UniProtKB/TrEMBL annotation:
Residues 181-193 have a biased composition (Basic and acidic residues). The keyword Ion transport does not apply. Keywords: DNA-binding, Metal-binding, Methyltransferase, Nucleus, Repressor, S-adenosyl-L-methionine, Transferase, Zinc, Zinc-finger. Its EC number is 2.1.1.37. The active site is at C620. This is DNA (cytosine-5-)-methyltransferase. Its main location: nucleus.
């Protein structure tokens, strides 16, 4: 409602619309376009309690997000072209959550008229329009919850908040003198929509949206991708639905399924929802409730458009109820296909938005998420289930090996590698992914028992990097065990305490062997055993010919020479100039470098071959789950694995050739289970997990695929291996720790423990590890990387990407039965 200057008489709505030249009317229009509320007005109408001047009665917070802390939210509103909120600003509401409208229903107009008559005298004295009434905004698919703010024990701080941003909570405070306003839907029409038929409408409003010949019109169901987030389902919406400006050329406004937030996304980063098999992530679907919610909402809308009905499911399991929808989507949305999913042409653009649907009592997340500021309370079903398990074991003498220690389910799929008990298939997959994931302080990111946990206790043993969640202590050990542990300084975890039974928690006496067996027997897929070549008689052995892809600092060549092999030819593909410099200088030009692996052709392999050994380890940046912006196996540097597979296939002996041929591929353990199994499917074998902690002074767990003889034999240290940090230090320096955490390319990976101590004492002061000491830890000769005036940081980066020499020696040693040695 608008009052004429100095009169207090209300103007007709059409009159106000038709006066763009009036500076007061224009100011009001600009105010609405910027989605900000009007400042305080009549002195006899006090502002609502708890509201700032610019809040319009709506306060949005992030504390009550429905998304859990371990779940990355849908990719919402990245900062693009200066208007949208960035993912870092997670506590700000999206544009769609603060949308206001000047289009009123008849009932609302009558309410305003009666209210205006009551306040006409005060308004006429001040010449100001009335303060707009607060509106309750409902966001599709979200309902407010109450969360407790979790804590991380022993001063372990969370450095990144990107993974705990959820939907906004809406709190409305209304003055007692303001009449109750009717509730409006989130997708209410913008005021400009009501003025489209007016002759005063701007030209931008009358122009067709998204007229750039790139497709993806309003209402289309799509997959979208923005930087830092995986592909996510959404729907193209009009800019009026977002409460923001029009999209830039070549861009589209998307509303994401799952939380209803908006983002401006390039049309080049969109694909049709019919590409479901290509972009659907089974790993995310298994672990993340937000992703399951998004997929369900997208398929729900697709089924309504395609008029697809599904037969009633007899099972009460929600997973079984959703499975027909997933099968329909993976099968191409038949019978109508893409045509059946398109929006109707005569529909209102503002009608296209995310359905307010949710999964009924959907199955819980595969793990309890780690500590975060938006974490919901642990699911009561899971806690009850584990408490019931404890009761069955302690009182009814049931066998704990039949239960999953992580969630309490019966019929465990496999054994728990560290404690007596089992793991169900879902928790096993989570354990495979998370057990070797470490935070910046060197401690495990998740609980040693369940690979989850809202709040964890860190072991006080300087050489232990394990943590245990409060839930596991209070349920599996005894109620209150976590509170008792808080008062112990230092508190030693159940892997460091004596081998006793604590509640139902008892460490396996052979846990080290069981851990190796757990990773070795991850037979998600069964493959034929690799061909075993008979040993070659000594007089028939010839020098070895090697193709090394992603060679790094020539660790393979160094180990072969240390083992005494005669190397006939060593072809190395490497793009890092510093790495090439190390190989050229240290091995005196005996390595032939061929640069980028992508430029090697079949003809090159035929010219350089035949090869007896093909080795390599593609970059792990886009595979490691430690990287929140990872792109996976099929994007970024993850795709380089397929270059290894391509050249391995070319180098293998052709049919009729009877000669020993061996190969090995290495990568990080902390990768997604699906990526790991895809690699295994291509290489047709399961990996073995080897941790260098057994033969060196540092943790370094890696997967190795290959057909080398005895790859899965126990790792045994030799007399030349330096097993303690003190053995690797220069004279006069004292180690504060027996072992160190995994050393990466990052400088802060040198710091140890929850308090981030430097690992060495010299002259009574803490000090970092010197480059020569890092080289000893990895098993390299002293000053191996000291070439071309490289600084300490550059040398650590080379070492952080390299292999552990004792581990490669362990793997290559059996080849002495096949090739000539000096």
């Amino acid at each position: 409602l608008v009052f004429e200057k100095e009169s207090g008489q209300p103007l007709d709505q059409s009159t106000a619309t038709a006066m763009p030249s009036n500076k007061y009317s224009a100011a009001i229009m600009e105010e609405s376009n910027n989605m900000t509320a009007t400042a305080a007005v009549n002195g006899d109408t006090p502002p609502a309690e708890g509201l700032s001047e610019n809040d319009s009665g709506v306060e949005l917070t992030n504390e009550n997000s429905p998304l859990t802390g371990a779940e990355p939210p849908s990719p919402f509103s990245p900062k693009q072209n200066g208007d949208a909120a960035s993912p870092q600003d997670g506590n700000q509401c999206s544009g769609g959550s603060r949308k206001r409208s000047r289009k009123k229903s008849e009932e609302e107009e009558s309410t305003w008229d009666s209210y205006s008559e009551e306040k006409a005298s005060g308004a006429s004295q001040l010449g100001l329009r009335q303060r707009p009434r607060p509106r309750t905004i409902f966001q599709a698919g979200l309902t407010p919850h109450t969360h407790n703010k979790p804590r991380r024990q022993n001063r372990k701080q969370e450095n990144s908040m990107l993974l705990c941003v959820g939907g906004p909570r809406v709190v409305v405070a209304v003055s007692s003198e303001v009449p109750e306003a009717p509730r409006l839907e989130l997708m209410e029409q913008d005021s400009k929509d009501s003025a489209q038929s007016s002759s005063t409408s701007s030209s931008s409003e009358t122009q067709p949206e998204y007229n750039d010949n790139k497709g993806f019109g309003i209402g289309e169901l799509v997959w979208g991708k923005i930087k830092g987030f995986s592909w996510w389902p959404g729907i193209v919406v009009t800019w009026r639905a977002t409460g923001k400006r029009q999209a830039s050329h070549g861009m589209r406004w998307l509303q994401w399924f799952g939380d209803g937030k908006f983002s401006e996304v390039s049309a080049d980063k969109l694909d049709s929802i019919t590409a479901f098999p290509k972009f659907f992530s089974q790993a995310s679907y298994t672990k993340l409730a937000s992703y399951r919610r998004a997929i369900f909402q997208a398929l729900e809308m697709a089924s309504v458009r395609a008029e697809k009905t599904f037969p009633p499911c007899e099972s009460d399991n929600p997973e079984d109820q959703v499975k027909p929808m997933l099968d329909w989507a993976n099968g191409g949305f038949l019978p109508k296909g893409e045509e059946g999913l398109k929006p109707t042409h005569n529909s209102n653009p503002l009608d296209h938005h995310v359905f307010d649907v949710s999964l009924p009592e959907y199955f819980p997340s595969a793990k309890r998420p780690r500590v975060s500021l938006c974490k919901n309370k642990a699911a009561p079903e899971e806690s009850y289930c584990r408490e019931q398990m404890v009761n069955e074991v302690l009182k009814n003498k049931s066998c704990i090996e039949d239960f999953c220690l992580s969630c309490g389910k019966m019929r465990a799929a496999t054994f728990h590698p560290l404690f007596e008990g089992g793991l169900c298939q879902t928790c096993k997959d989570v354990y495979l992914e998370m057990s070797y994931m470490y935070d910046d302080d060197g401690y495990q990111s998740y609980c040693t028992v369940c690979c989850g946990g809202r709040e964890v206790l860190l072991c006080g043993n300087a050489n232990c990097c394990r943590c245990f969640c409060v839930d596991c202590l209070d349920i599996l050990v005894n109620p209150g065990a976590s509170n008792n542990a808080r008062y112990l300084d230092p508190w030693r975890c159940y892997m460091c305490q004596p081998l006793l039974q604590y509640g139902v928690l008892k460490r396996r006496h052979d846990w080290s062997l069981k851990l190796q067996e757990f990773f070795a027997n991850d037979n998600g897929q069964e493959f034929e055993k690799p061909k075993i070549y008979p040993a070659v008689p000594a007089e028939q052995r010839r020098p070895i010919r090697v193709l090394s892809l992603f060679d790094g600092i020539a660790t393979g060549y160094l180990v072969l020479r240390d083992l005494g092999f005669k190397v006939d030819q060593y072809i190395a593909s490497e793009v890092c100039e510093d790495s090439i410099s190390v190989g050229v200088v240290r091995h005196e030009g005996k390595i032939q470098y061929v640069h980028d692996v992508r430029n090697i052709t079949r003809k090159n392999i035929q010219e350089w071959g035949p090869f007896d050994l093909v080795i390599g380890g593609s970059p792990c940046n886009d595979l490691s789950i430690v990287n929140p912006a990872r792109k996976g196996l099929y994007e970024g540097t993850g795709r380089l694995f397929f270059e290894f597979y391509r050249l391995l296939s070319e180098a293998k002996p052709k049919e009729g050739e009877h000669r020993p041929f061996f190969w090995m591929f290495e990568n990080v353990v902390a990768m997604g289970v699906n990526d790991k199994r895809d690699i295994s499917r291509f290489l047709e074998c399961n990996p073995v997990m080897i941790d260098a902690i057994e033969v060196s002074a540092a943790h370094r767990a890696r997967y190795f695929w290959g057909n080398l003889p005895g790859m899965n034999r126990p790792l045994c240290a030799s007399g030349m291996d330096k097993l303690e940090l003190q053995d690797c230090l220069e004279h006069g320096r004292v180690a504060k720790f027996g072992k160190v955490r995994t050393i990466t390319t990052r400088s802060n990976s040198i710091k140890q423990g929850k308090d981030q101590h430097f690992p060495v004492l010299m002259n009574g002061k803490e000090d970092i590890l010197w480059c020569t000491e890092l080289e000893r830890i990895f098993g390299f000769p002293v000053h191996y990387t000291d070439v071309s005036n490289m600084g300490r940081g550059a040398r650590q980066k080379l070492l952080g990407r390299s292999w552990s020499v004792p581990v490669i020696r362990h793997l290559f040693a059996p080849l002495k039965d096949y090739f000539a040695c000096e």
